[in-house]
Every structure is written in C-alpha cells, then in structure tokens.
Design a protein that fits this description.
heterodimer, A: 5 domains, two-stranded antiparallel ribbon, B: alpha/beta, Alkaline Phosphatase, subunit A, 2 domains, two-stranded antiparallel sheet, 13 helices
Chain lengths: 780, 478
C-alpha cells in the first residue's frame, strides 16, 4: 500500500471524485489529460513509461503509437490485452501486487470507457501551447467583475454550486493588505476603506498597496524561497556568505515592476547581457545561491557534480514547474526527460566560475566565495548621487552642512557590501554521469541543450549560453515561455486564492495535477506574456475579481462536496506565513521598523541554539538597536539552524527550492507565540500603546486592543474572558511587583516609565491572549 | 488540513506528572474548566492507518550516532594481516579509482590497529581493548562488520545515513518512523535529539539531520539541550507562573472555540489541541530532564552528573524518554573524526561513551525494556586502513567501503557478528549491508514493511530506503 498524506494527493482524489460524480461531465467524452493520464501515470508508467532501463515487457503506455501496437485496441475491450490484464486473476493482474498499486473499480471503469470511446491520447497539457477560448456564458449575470469570474462561475453553475456572498469590507481590506504587503492594515486604513462608498474604493486600496515598498518585501519573501536564498553556505561549517545585495535586487525588481522575462534574464544571465549594469551583475548572484562547501577532504569533481545537479533542480522547478531533478540518475519515470536532457541542462551552467572556493574558502565569517564584487544597492546609489549633488551646491562658507553631507556620503560609501556574482569562464566539460555516479567517466560529453522533446534552442554562437537558456525560458512563441507563464501565474493564483489552479505548484508533469480550470489558466498565461510579463497588472487582475472578494465562510454542503475549495466557491482561510506572523505582531504594537533593504538582521534567539555549528564555533549576537524590529524578510537565514521562530511556522531551510510551504499547526509553534521574547516584548509594547491611546476604562482599552489587532471590537463573551484575565493578573502583579517588573522588562525596548508596572504587566497578559488567537494569525 | 492530531488533555497523566505544586484550588478550577471525562485520554499520537503491518518486534529506536566516523579497526574489526603490513605501501589494487577524502594525492600506507582485540561472550565476539564495557555486553550486541555508505564527507554522509539520500530536504528516519506508527506519548515529541559535549573539536551537525522534509512538520525531531532551556521556548516568560500560563492557555482556547462556533473552521480544533500539548510539554519536559529523582547507583552506573551535557547524561535521558513513550531517540556524540591523534582521541571518545552505552543497555534490560527497544550504534562512515599523518600523531581518514556498526535489543540476534571486510579492512566483502539495508531492517523490526512504506512527493513514491531495492537483513534477526 502507499501512504499518500499530502493534500495534493487527497485533493486530487477528491477532485476526480467530484468530476466523476458530475452529471454534466458524464455526458461528455472523457478527457485524456484530465481523466485518463493521471490513472496511467500513477499506476502504469513506472514500468511502462519513458524510462527504457526499467521498462517491462517492452511495453510503453505513455506513447500512443507504442501503446496501440497491440496492448490497446481502440473500441475493442476484448482485444485490448492492456484492459484484460487489469481484470485478470490475481497472479497475472496489473498492476502487480508487489508494486503496491491497485486500481479502484471506478478507475477500471474509466479506462474501459476510454477504450470504448476510441482511446484518444493527447499531448501532456503543460507542453501544449495555451489556447485562447471563448469566455463561457453564465446564467447569473450579476456576479462577475471580470473574465476570470466568468470561467469560475460557469464551472460552479455546471456543478450546481453558488459563489459565496462578498466578504465584509473589514475582512476584505485585511485580506488584501496581508496578501499584497504581508502586513495588517492600520486602524485608519480600515476606517477609511469602510467609510469610502465610492465604486472604486477597493481598487484604490489595491493601487495603494501595489505602489508601496511593502509589496516588494512581500513578493521577495516568496521568490527567495524558490531560488533558495540564504545567508549561509548550507553544507558542513555553514559559514555566512556575501549575498544580501541580491535580496535588495529582488525587492527593487518587484517594486519597480520589472517585467518577469527581464527578471528571469538578469538572474540567470545578467553577467552575459551586453554592458551589464551593476544590478544585472548583482542579479546574476542567482547562480551562486546554491549550497556550497569547502569541507576538508572534499573531492572537487564530486561537488561540481552536486552543484550542477542542484542548479538543474532549481531552474527546472522555478521556471518550468518540472521535476527534471529526477533524471539525474536515470531517465524520468513519468515525464519525457531523459538522463541526457538532465546533463545538457546542467551544461548551460558549466561556465559559472566557482571552483576557486574549494581552495580559498575559509572558516571565517563571512567565508570567501569568489567571484564577489563590492556594491551599493540601487537605492543606496541613488542616495549617493543625490547627496553628492547637494554637496556640490552647498555654499562655500557653510562648513556645517558640508561636513554633515560628507559624513553621510562616507557612511554610505563604507556601507558598500560584497556580493557573490556570476562570472563566465571557459565551460568545463560536462558528461552524462551514468546512474548519477560522478566517478564514472564513461558517459558521453554533452553540450548545452534543452530537453529533446521540447525541440532545439536558438543560439548565435557554437554553444548555447545561459542567456540563450533564459531567453528560451521566456520566449512564448518558440521557447518554453508559455509553460513559464503558466507556472508563474499559477503560483500567483496560489498566493491569492490559497490553492493553485493546478494544486501541484512544483510539478506540471504527468504526476502533477492537471489544472481544474485549464481554459482559465491558459487565458491567464497568454494574458501575462502578451502584456509584457507585467506582474503587478496580473496581481491586480487576480484581486479585482468577485471570486477574490468573496467571504471565506463555507457551508457544510460545500465542505463536504469540495473540501479543498477547488471550485473557488468561497475564499480560502489559511494561517499566515512565518514572516507575516512576526511582522503582524511587531506592526500592531508599533515596534516594526520599516527600513528598506540592507544587510540581514538578527532578532533574539534562544541561547545556545547554534551550539552544533562549528568551523568556526558560533556565538549569536542579537541586534542591539532598532534593527531588532525589522521585517522578517531581512532576518539572517542560517540554513542549518534557521531561526526557531520562523522554522516553527514552516519557513524552509532554503537548501532546496520551496514553491509551497506546508502549513502546520504544532505545539512547537504554540510555544513560540506563548514564550518567545519577541512576542512578549511586542505584547508589552502593544499593551503600553493601548494604555496610552485609549480612554482609561477597561472596556475602552479592550475595544482599542481588538481594533488595533483584529480590526474589530470584542463581543460580550470575549470581553468577559479578557476581563477575567486582566483582573486575575492585575491582582497578582499588584501583590508581586517583582514579577511585574520581570515581565515588562523583557526585550530591548525600554519600559514605558510613565505606566504602572502592575497595570502594564496585566495588560501584557491580555495582549498575549490576543497575539495567540487563531484569528490573529489567520488570513481570512 | 489538520496538521495535528486533535487530542484531548489526558487529565490523569497531567496531574501525576506535572510535579509542580499547584494549589488545590487551582487544581480544582483546572479540572472544572477542562470538563473532560477520564475517557478522553488517547495516550499517544496515532500513525498511518494500516500500520504497523508486520509483527512489531520493537516499539522504539535509540540511535547512538558516533558522529565523525569511528574507526572500525580500533573497535570491532580485527585485521591481523593489516597489522603485519603496518607501514608498508597500501596495495593500489584496492584504492585505484576509489573515492578518497583528505588523503587525496598522498602516498598511502598501511596502518595496523593500534589496539589489541580479545574474544568475549559465549560466541567469542572480537572487541578491542578500547571498549572494556562493550566487552561485557558482547552477548547482547550483533556486530555488523560489513557496512557501506555512499558519501565520504561528514555533512552529506550524515544526511545519507539519516535520510537515505545526500540531497537536502528529505525526511529523516525518526520523522519517517513517527509518521508511520506515531508515538506513545502526547506530552512529549515522538522524535527527540540529544547531543553531547566532549572529545575532539566536534564536527558540526545540521538540523537537517532531524528534519521532517516533505512530511508534516510535526514529525520533525525536537532537540533537547542540556544547557539553557531544555527545549526552545519551553519555559514561561520571566514573571509568569504556571497558573497564569495555564489560565492564559485556557483563555486562548476558549476564545478560539468561540471563534470556531462562529465560522466552523475545523482547523481551530487542531490549534486548540496544539496549545494543550504545548502546555503539557511545558509541564513534562522540565520534569523529564530533572534527574534528581534517580537513585545514586543509577547515576553511578551511567557515570552521569546531572546537567553536565555528557554522553552519560544523555544516555540516562534516553532511558527516561524511552520510558515515557518517545518513539525515536537520537543521540549524537561528535568527537570521532580522528584524522590525527588517533590514540589520544580514541581514549577520549571511548572513555566518554563506552561505559554509558553499557549502562543504557543494561538499564533497559533490567527494566524489561530492551526486549522492545532497538539500539543502533555507529558513525556516518568508518576510517581508512591507511594512515594519515599531519601535525600531530597518526590518524585515519574517512572511509565508506567497509565499516562497523552494532545493533541490540528486541528481535536482534545478540552475541553474533555479521559480515566481514577483506584482510586489510578496506572493502566489505561478505554479507554487505548498505545503509538502505539498515533502514529496511529497522523499519521491519518496527513492524513496517519497508518496500511499501512510501509517500508521494514530486510525483514519486519516496521511501526512506530509496529507489534501489533494500534488503531486510533477516540473518541478524532472531
């Protein structure tokens, strides 16, 4: 038996059930990609698929011609050996018992019907160019706000379902502010929106959020997961390496709304662009983000092979939604990627200059990972230019201003940072490594090439370059740009709707889930590349729908019928990502420091947490000043020991590409919110804010606290519970001033001296309750 | 998606194990608030339906990782031929084209064992003089002298030993086991990691080694520390007592329940359960790590001084964790990377680990727990039969083609030696046991059919034992 836990699998099964049960669909012929291929892929392709080495009985079922040679006779169930084996006696039945696979009666029925209907094959959906379709007609003509809604509604109507009512305005502004900026709206922003009755009130909010620097910070957090950005090398000594300017580049790119095709080119091949700018060189740091090592006794050849494989995994995951990594040792079991394809893709990166670090890497912090260049971020450079211009205009006798400006210029100059970049050298020889074995030199030498089944790549020279690869990845007409577009748009959809149109964000191959709304995904993909890969425009389109703005409440019927909300009959509700949980607490307390960009920061961390690191041994020094309260996207990312607060909320180590974080709900995470000094300090500062800003009755203060933290007032039950906590603790701290001063003394932020310590401590408890509420950490 | 088993407070256990002087009034109100019947106890976290699917020979694993890679030639693999050739050139026929670590490009010379071996126990198990306490348990342990692995540097070799692959991001064995068959406690994590101080400048060890990979986060190993808080954030903030914390958690749960009545979100029930368990962990972990209730003769048997962070103390903690239903207990002792100073550091390492290991096995045995515990001892690889000379005294380099580990406990044939390396202790040549075979055997003993224990990830059926067929080593199973 096979234990399929994750939601993808469960979702998939439910989706299929949903499809199968649908009266409307029963009348249409089966769709190979949606109805048949997943069954074949899961149960048959492992032995009868693309991998020739493992193929049994010389039978291939993923290829139409081969399958119809004798095994499948269209329209003839009796004559189709394939089908007869599915229903044969146990000892000859397929799939064999040892495989652990078993077809359900429903699946057998589907395959039977498919053969009866003529056993039509289709090219795999992800590799077929997206098709424009007519926007479907709907019965309910009042609901849709744009085309996206029509696709969704048509399907709901087909299933006899209704969309949810619109979300209330408070919920809506909270949702969109978290989604687009990773922060909660302020009380004023909420009030303004609620009071704004103009028809474009929501659009104004969206435009404001997209124009805010906070947008880039939010998008960067997701992108950095995918490209596995971290502050340390990952292997062995896990020393710091120089890379923070790359993060600034990503922030700036999203904020400046750089077209996604350009964003792609600059990262994969910024160094190869004609007259590469500083920013393009910084961007080429993408090729250096992988885990590296200079562990004593390493064998260079082995690690060069490890690095090559790492890059293929990453580039194919990020841009192609493909698991090409599976072809490192053998031809892919389910998708048409061969082992040669794997090493041909790796060959694109054979020119990346990196081997020097095996020799010069040191156990210092940061270590050395040449080539590195010393840079200022885009904004720092702009600042410098403006300061120098000002300096030039200062009157000769104004020594004070001159000195001030010179000081600022010097400080900025001193703040230049090293960053790893890509430099191209003569490409090293790349061979196919049989079984992935780096010691086996018997494989053929390969040149850079795209997967064979996808055609050939254009190149001006003899040898295709990284730039050719980048261009191919975003060339929607003759490259794989349409696939890239589908992959990226699907991920934006996931960020805003909770689950992708195809739930398998990282696998658009045969084992992934076909999209629930293929026409919609195609239409969005086309729209994205036809509008210059404009990310902000796409995000705006996705949130300006009626579907996005629905309530997240679901009826019992819907919960039963479509528990994973694949038909988007309501919005989704999910726990905030790790970064937002931290930022939210800091934001509502007023502690949050919104400084933009720069080197990584170090929040409080349990003592001894780095005790297992060595070469060198590590002492963690938490930031002493207001760097302490920066946004989480800037937190030092130690691959081997990620900050435990972020980790507890599923932030990944960034050793590998992460396209979707799990969403766990564990006691370890509860302990963070209950006891981490970051949250205790934030609760105390929040309490002080409530005590200072609200009228001085308990009721007014509770109202204020709820308004600030949850954008609403408490009801009578909530007030009762919180009042009880308040009174209990008030009494206790009045009797025990020492305990009160201990509690309010937690954190660097000085205690508010004008406030009574017992009162502040008691309100800190009230704040702790609020900070631990499901509602506080849930995007609704 | 529920990520957490919605368990209820086990009131009786909570009361008997808090060990904290809650006033009777507080207790009374605690009970009243909970309003839970005695039947609500679950006593553990369930695994996957249908598992275990084989006879369960052991209930738990204690993995004693001798991190750095102990020399098989100074512990369990006696090679008289190698000793005779001491100082001579190492035959190239062995080493040509083989992976090699720090000895790359150097002249390779034989280094005979620096220790003597004697035979112990009913079957005459060969054990070196470095391990007098192991000698006393010769009849309990099954020595495997034919281990092989695929990674020659520490970091990837640990990753390979723990996850079955050197690619980062895959679940570790403790996570796999907890995912599969759950654990028998709902007050402690099912997978606990402890590492000890002492020995040579230790190799680093990454939290990747106890990660849950693509399995749900709740299966990841939780690291216990011998200094500071035993578990991150397990202590109340300063100025907050147990009763306040209890009331706080209750208020949170009440408000969450209230919220759930309004929006019906089933995830909230899991969150309430997670907070309950968090509070129970706050109560039970300090009690667990406080060994002041252990009698002196037990402390002496291990050689443990409470709070010293030693391997001895961790062995004692391992027993206490085992008693409380923790499924997978992983100890790291990180001093075994003896490139130089072999003599000196073998003394140090065996001095720190030999006796406590014996004590752990004996203590489990006297409590009747060895029968349902699997103990595994070994490093991420072994060491070369070639010498390495650097600054200090002679040592040995990393070696992956043949090394020794041992297993003991329920289901394992104690008093036996399995497999062999060649005359020079270089290649495992007889009954080779690959790391994936060790994984398969471990799963088998836990009642899990290794071949069909898989999870879908990136379209593939992922297994701890990997893609290639793994073999349950039935010959070492009683």
């Amino acid at each position: 038996m096979s234990y399929i836990p994750a939601r993808t699998a469960a979702t998939f099964a439910l989706l299929l059930a949903l499809l199968a049960s649908s009266q409307a669909h029963a009348e249409k012929p089966l769709d190979y990609n949606r109805d048949v291929r997943p069954i074949l892929s899961e149960n048959c392709f492992y032995c009868h698929g693309p991998d020739p080495e493992h193929r049994q009985a010389d039978l291939r079922l993923d290829d139409e011609e081969a399958a119809k040679d004798y095994a499948i006779v269209p329209g003839d169930i009796e004559g189709s050996e394939f089908f007869q084996r599915l229903i044969a006696d146990a000892d000859t039945r397929m799939p064999p018992v040892e495989s652990g696979k078993k077809l359900t009666p429903q699946q057998i029925a589907t395959l039977k019907r498919w053969i009866e209907e003529g056993a039509q094959f289709q090219q795999h959906w992800a590799y077929v160019p997206p098709q424009s379709t007519e926007v479907p007609a709907v019965k309910n003509t009042d609901w849709a706000k744009n085309d996206i809604d029509l696709y969704l509604l048509a399907r709901m109507e087909e299933e006899g379902l209704q969309p949810a009512p619109p979300a209330d305005k408070v919920t809506l502004i909270r949702r969109v502010t978290f989604d687009l900026t990773g922060l909660p709206p302020t009380a004023e922003e909420v009030a303004d929106f609620v009071q704004d009755n103009s028809p474009d009130s929501f659009e104004k909010v969206v435009d404001r959020l997209l124009a805010s620097d906070r947008y880039g910070e939010r998008m960067a957090a997701y992108w950095l997961d995918m490209v596995r950005f971290a502050d340390t090398v990952g292997y062995h000594g896990d020393q710091d390496h120089n890379i923070s300017p790359y993060r600034d580049y990503v922030l700036d790119a999203f904020n400046a709304n750089m077209p996604f095709d350009q964003f792609t080119r600059e990262q994969i091949a910024g160094d190869l662009l004609p007259d590469a700018t500083i920013d393009q060189k910084i961007a080429s740091g993408y090729n250096r983000l992988l885990q590296t090592t200079h562990e004593g006794g390493l064998q260079e050849k082995e690690y060069l092979a490890i690095y090559a494989a790492d890059r293929v995994r990453n580039v194919s995951q990020v841009w192609m939604g493909a698991t090409v990594g599976c072809a490192q040792c053998h031809t892919h079991k389910y998708d048409p990627y061969t082992i040669e394809d794997f090493y041909c893709l790796a060959a694109f990166f054979a020119d990346v200059n990196e081997a020097e670090h095996f020799k010069v890497g040191t156990n210092a912090l940061p270590t050395k990972r040449p080539p590195e260049i010393k840079v200022h971020s885009q904004r720092e450079r702009a600042q410098l230019t403006s300061l120098k211009a000002k300096l030039a205009e200062v009157a000769d006798d104004d020594a004070a201003t001159t000195e001030r400006l010179q000081k600022q210029i010097k400080a900025l100059n001193d703040a230049a940072r090293l960053t790893m970049v890509t430099e191209s050298i003569t490409p090293r020889e790349m061979r196919v490594l049989p079984r992935g074995n780096w010691q086996d030199d018997s494989g053929p030498v390969v040149q850079p090439a795209i997967p064979t089944f996808m055609g050939t790549i254009n190149t001006a020279g003899d040898r295709a370059t990284r730039l050719d690869l980048a261009n191919w990845l975003v060339d929607a007409k003759s490259g794989s740009g349409a696939l890239t577009s589908r992959v990226f748009v699907n991920r934006l959809w996931y960020l805003l709707y909770g689950v992708g149109l195809s739930a398998s964000l990282g696998d658009f191959g045969g084992q992934g889930e076909p999209p629930v709304h293929p026409e919609l995904l195609d239409s969005l993909a086309i729209d994205f590349y036809e509008h210059d890969w404009d990310v902000k425009r796409m995000i705006k389109r996705l949130v300006m729908t009626a579907a996005y703005q629905q309530a997240s409440d679901e009826s019992e019927t819907i919960r039963q019928r479509d528990p994973y909300n694949r038909l988007y009959t309501h919005q989704s509700r999910h726990r905030l990502p790790a970064e937002m949980i931290r930022d939210n607490a800091l934001a509502v307390s007023g502690l949050l420091n919104l400084t933009y960009g720069g080197p990584s920061v170090k929040p409080y961390q349990p003592e001894g947490y780095f005790r297992h690191l060595n070469f060198p041994q590590r002492k963690y020094h938490a930031d002493k000043k207001d760097q302490q309260w920066r946004r989480a996207v800037y937190v030092h990312w130690q691959r081997q020991f990620l900050h435990p607060s972020l980790k507890a909320f599923d932030a990944p180590s960034r050793e590998e590409c992460t396209v979707e974080r799990p969403e766990s709900n564990t006691p370890v995470a509860a302990l963070v919110l209950l006891n981490d000094p970051t949250y205790i300090e934030a609760a105390r500062v929040f309490a002080a804010r409530v005590l200072t800003e609200a009228e001085s009755t308990d009721e007014a203060r509770l109202n204020k606290a709820y308004l600030l933290a949850l954008s609403r007032e408490p009801d009578s039950y909530e007030r009762e519970i919180l009042t009880k906590i308040l009174n209990e603790n008030r009494e206790l701290y009045q009797q025990d001033p020492k305990a009160a001063s201990q509690l309010v003394g937690i954190g660097l932020k000085p205690t508010e001296s004008n406030l009574d310590a017992a009162e502040l401590a008691a309100w800190t408890h009230v704040s702790r309750v609020i900070f631990n509420l499901d509602e506080f950490i849930t995007r609704n | 998606m529920s990520e957490f088993h919605p368990m209820q407070l086990n009131r009786r256990t909570f009361l008997s194990q808090t060990g904290i002087g809650l006033g009777s009034a507080a207790l009374g109100s605690l009970l009243a608030r909970e309003g839970l019947g005695a039947s609500s106890s679950t006593n553990g976290v369930p695994g996957q339906p249908g598992l275990p699917n084989l006879t369960q020979r052991v209930k738990r694993v204690i993995f004693l990782c001798m991190s750095g890679g102990p020399s098989h030639l100074e512990t369990f693999d006696n090679k008289p031929v190698l000793s005779k050739m001491n100082g001579q050139a190492f035959p190239e026929s062995y080493t040509a084209g083989q992976p090699i670590a720090q000895l790359q490009g150097q002249a390779l010379k034989c280094l005979g064992s620096i220790s003597k071996f004697q035979k112990y126990g009913a079957n005459g198990q060969e054990i070196s003089d470095y391990l007098p306490w192991h000698a006393k348990m010769a009849d309990d342990i099954c020595i495997v002298r034919s281990m092989v692995t695929e990674q020659i540097n520490h970091d990837p070799a640990h990753t390979f030993m723990n996850t079955g692959t050197a690619i980062s991001g895959r679940p570790s064995m403790g996570a796999w086991v907890n995912y599969g068959i759950g654990c028998e406690t709902d007050e402690l994590p099912g997978f606990v990691v402890l590492s000890s101080v002492g020995g040579r400048n230790p190799q680093p060890i990454a939290s990747r080694q106890w990660a849950s990979g693509f399995l749900p986060s709740r299966y990841q190993g939780v690291e216990f520390s011998s200094t500071g808080d035993p578990v991150n954030y397990v202590r109340n903030p300063a100025g907050v007592n147990v009763r306040q914390q209890r009331n706080l958690v209750d208020a949170i749960s009440n408000l969450n329940r209230h919220r759930q009545q309004a929006n019906g979100d089933p995830e909230i029930a899991s969150r309430i359960a997670a907070y309950e368990m968090a509070f129970r962990m706050q109560m039970s972990i300090p009690e667990l790590t406080d060994v002041s209730d252990e009698p002196q003769h037990i402390l002496d048997m291990y050689g443990a001084k409470p709070g010293d962070g030693s391997f001895a103390s961790n062995c004692l903690l391992a027993r206490r964790l085992a008693e409380r239903g923790v499924r997978f207990i992983h100890l790291y002792h990180r001093g075994w990377d003896h490139h130089g100073g072999l003599k000196k550091y073998m003394d140090v390492c065996t001095g720190l680990t030999d006796k406590p290991t014996y004590a752990l096995l004996t203590d489990l045995k006297q409590r009747g727990m060895l029968d349902d515990t699997l103990i595994v001892w070994g490093g991420e690889f072994g060491r070369t039969p070639m010498s390495q000379s650097g600054k200090g005294d002679i040592g040995r380099d990393h070696h992956i083609k043949g090394f020794s580990m041992w297993l003991a406990g329920g289901g394992v044939k104690g008093g036996t030696t399995y497999g062999a390396t060649d005359d020079l202790g270089y290649n495992a040549v007889e009954n080779v046991v690959h790391v994936r075979d060790l994984h398969a055997t471990m799963l088998y003993l836990l009642g899990i059919d290794p071949e069909h224990f898989s999870v879908k990830f990136q379209g593939l059926d992922m297994r701890l034992t990997g893609v290639k067929p793994a073999r349950v080593v039935h010959d070492i199973i009683a």
